[in-house]
Amino acid sequence: MGMAASQARFLGLTARMNNIEFEGQQINQQRTALSNKSASYYSDLLGMAVPTAPSVEEYTQTVYTFNDGALTNQITSLIADTANPGKYNVSYIKSWTDDFSIVSASPSIITNVGGGTYNIGGTKLRLLGQVGGGTTVGNSISINGETYAVNNDAGGYYINENVKTKGLQKCTAAEIANLEYYKFNSDYTSAEQLYKEADGSYYTLDDAGNKVPQTGVNENDLIMCLYDDTATNPDDAVILVQKDTDGGYSKEAEIVTPTKKYLTTAQVNSITIYNDAANDPYLKTLSTDQVTKLIAEEQEILKKLNNDLNNGDQTGQWFVRYVQNTSTGEYEGVYYKASEVTGATWDSKNNSQSFIGAYKLGSADRVEEIKGIGGCELEQDSTGRYINITFNDNGSKKTYALSTNTITDQDAYEDAMNQYEYDKALYDQSIEEINAKIEIIQAEDKNLELRLKQLDTEHNAISNEKDAVSKVIEKAVENGFKTFG
């Protein structure tokens, strides 16, 4: 190898070695960056909070309850009453079931028949609390077990009632013959029965039944009466009799006088036949008295509907139809707000398209919170558990037994469990994402490590070759010096 060629080869090897060393430095920098990034990911893993599943015990508490008649009361707060040492301020929630509540019912398609008439199927909706379509008043009425003919004049419907008053009535000859006579003693504490002879004199009977004449006795001094042994009431059995100025006798009696008596609105309604009742599937099963009672009940329901669902405006009108329960056979009222019906959107067949709410009577749970009842006394057992509570109501004490119940807020627990499942899913997803990133970094670092080993092998080979070339150059220089020496 010539001197010049060796020198050129030496310089080329030197340049290549420098490039390898530079590339090695870059790879080490890359590996350092990857290591830092990997460390950051591991730090993130260590810093992540592991979600913890909620415990049922966290949502379970011990509460005290007491019953006040049909109401169940749950104590919500017990605070010492500073104004009454040893006593408490108590707050509690009263809960009960209201069986006269307005609840939602299944809605139905309503048909606009026209003329202000609306049907569901073949049943006409009727204004709640009213029965229309014409009426017919019956020609008789029963009052207190007696039947009367019903008449009508300008004053209204009336009956001719026999009014009974106390008065006097002439005695018959037979009654006069059976008069009884009694004479009171001087202080009117007792009376003795007398008997009248044909000559008008009087006598009594002794224990043996013998007549004892009574002298100086005047009819005006005696009590005269008739005795009715068929009367069930002792007061009615004895009928007083008086002597008239014309010489005859009169007895106490009830005088019957036929009197015109106008019927009340309720009485007229009780004998009124409603045309709607003949067409309505439910009303036609009712008597006129029952229809009257039903209308009165509907008036109360109308008030409740307007209070609960019409902001208390009692001018609101409601439609009603009665639906028969297939299980019990009973009819149940379903109510529709009239303004929603009349203001509905109708299709080409006059069927309702817009939503119309339906309501009925049902049961609903009610609660009322009573706060800060002061001066309450609590009694504990040996374990410290409260067993009785006493309320002071204007000096009158009322004591109720306390029951201990364990209540779990299941809704809150399920919400917490759902949140845990969500957080756990996010945690697992984050772990997977970080692990995936770490695996990528490890793969990149592995590749860089392999490349670095390749460069190291190449660097050693070049270093060896460079040493060999260097020796060749040294040998050539040494030979040159010998030639010119």
* Shape estimate: elongated
The tally of strands reads: 26
First-to-last CA distance: 22 Å
Q: Helical element count?
A: 8
Instruction: Please give the radius of gyration in angstroms.
Output: 57 Å
Q: What level of helicity do the residues show?
A: 25-40%
Beta strand %:
35-45%
**Structural class determined from secondary elements:** alpha+beta
Major β-sheet, in short? 9 strands, antiparallel
The stretches of 5 or more residues where confidence is low (pLDDT under 50) are: none
- Mean pLDDT rating: 86
Biggest sheet, spatial arrangement of strands: 11-12-19-18-17-13-14-15-16
Would you mind describing this structure in some detail?
There is one protein chain. This protein has 485 residues and is an alpha+beta fold. Among the domains are: 106-145 and 264-357, no CATH class; 159-261, no CATH class. The chain is built from eight helices and 26 strands. The chain has helices spanning 3-47, 173-177, 234-237, 265-270, 275-279, 288-309, 338-342, 410-483, and strands spanning 60-68, 71-80, 88-104, 111-114, 117-120, 123-124, 126-127, 135-137, 140-143, 146-149, 151-153, 156-170, 180-184, 191-196, 202-205, 211-214, 223-227, 238-243, 249-262, 272-274, 318-324, 331-337, 359-380, 386-393, 396-401, 403-408. The strands form six sheets. Strands 11-12-19-18-17-13-14-15-16 form a nine-stranded antiparallel sheet. The mean pLDDT is 86.
